[in-house]
Amino acid sequence: MSDSLVLLERLVAKARAAGADAADAVLVDSVSLSVGIRLGALERMERSESGDIGLRVLVGRRQAMVSSSDRAAAALDELVERAVAMARAVPEDPYGGLADPDELARDFPDLESCDAAEPSAETLLDMVRRAEDSARAVTGVTNSEGADAGWARSAMAFVASNGFAHTYAVTSSSLSASVLAGEAASGMERDYDYTSAVHFADLRPPEDVGHEAGRRAVRRLGSRKVKTCQVPVIYDPRVSRGLLGSLAGAVNGAAVARGTSFLKDRMGTQVFAPGIRIVDDPHRKRGLRSRPCDGEGVAGRKLAVVEDGTLASWLLDCRSARQLGLKSTGHAGRGTASPPSPSASNLYMEPGVVTVAEMIGDIPSGFYVTDLFGQGVNGVTGDYSRGAAGFWIEGGEIAYPVSEVTIAGNLKDMFPRLVPASDLVFRYGVDCPTVRIDGMTVAGA
Among residues 414, 430, 325, 344, which one has the least CA distance to residue 377? Predict the structure, then answer.
């Protein structure tokens, strides 16, 4: 048994001895390395290490959680005393509590979530220089906001008085570049590109990231406004995933239980067009959000949230499941300083059959969105309004860049009209192909 599990088992035992009816504890040890340059000059090189412990105790139906970075015996004794005292003082929560033993994960698949290799600072520095050089080499690029690279590793351990104990580690690596094109007198545009992966070797080449950042920035030069109209809107994959993020919020069990989701009464009904399938898969190998179990030790599984257009499941932790009279779906997220709450893992929309070119080809006038701004999504009503930039479509082809417009609608109307293209790529952890939604309001000049 690892030292982390031994420490947590002792902590849970101390909490029980101090009067807790149940307890669980989580430990996270993290190390990260990051570098950043701008115009070829080093701007940042940082390495950090941290370690935190979180303890949750239950006294009857009363629950409290405390955290600390101090692992000395005296500090942990104080942690236990404080947690139990707090639990005795707070109101009862009829839905709180640990997972039932029959819900706990017993088998832990190899998800390839931890890369044994740790890149050096010199390796990261070489990558960002190559990425920025490639971006600045694109004709039309006139300035740089820099390039950044990072690597991180987190080791997590979890022990609960219901008999669960497990530890695992995850890694992540990333590389990004951001540049400007044009001149101040005639107008400048900014754009970026990035890559992220669990395994360092799976990152896209730095030259590819840099060149794409430069190409995107130059492509936006000469942006125009358009008049307010209702047209088909095409969402590029780097923004279409935001629609899945809004769906994830609407099917979050905590929001449903509170009655603050626009989908709260839609379980088992058609919310997307027939054929649409949206999946959450915590066990995808090398997935950016993969996990062997959830934050309460509950076994996860590949879950269809939307099946053939029909809303098929909420994302539930134990508390929200009890509140709704259901069973946990294994979607509890967990930190050291807060109690579990529902969260998605690797959420994605399965691809359609139409290509992006075919999707655009029959649009007489429309809007291809590449960037969204602002947080104009109301999770209670479904109202949707976002600042946007991208490209105007004329006669089935990309015609010219567009900026300073707003796209608006309501997700309850947008979801049924959504059509996915065939270009799904797993890049972000929440992934969606290019999608088309007809009848959107584009507000411009």
Answer: 414
Residues 344 and 358 in one domain: no
Q: Which residues pair with 306 in a beta bridge?
A: 278, 311
CATH code for the domain in which residue 18 is found: 3.30.2290.10
Determine if the pTM surpasses 0.90. yes
* DSSP track, 270-298: B-S-TT--EEE-TT-TT-TT--SS-TTSB
Pairing of strands 365-373, 229-235: parallel
> Rounded distance, CA 234 to CA 252, Å?
26
Beta strand segments in 81-227, E: 141-160, 165-183, 187-197
Same domain membership, residue 276 and residue 159: no
Give Cα 281 distance to the centre of its chain: 13
Dihedral, CA of residue 177, residue 178, residue 183 and residue 188, to nearest 10? 150
Domain containing residue 205: 3-218
**253 falls within a domain:** no
CA 372: distance to chain centroid? 16
- Considering the domain architecture, whether residues 372 and 333 belong to the same structural domain is answered as no
Please say which residue of 329, 348, 367 terminates a domain. Answer: 348
* Residue where a domain terminates, one of 325, 348, 371: 348
Query: What is the count of structural domains for the chain?
Result: 3
**pLDDT tens-place string over residues 208-256:** 999 999 999 999 999 999 999 999 999 999 999 999 999 999 999 999 9
Per the CB < 8 A criterion, the answer to whether 370 and 391 are in contact is: yes
Please write the tens of the pLDDT for every residue from 165-190: 999 999 999 999 999 999 988 889 99
In the structure encoding, which two tokens stand for residue 371, read together?
Answer: 């960037």
Strand partners, 307: 310
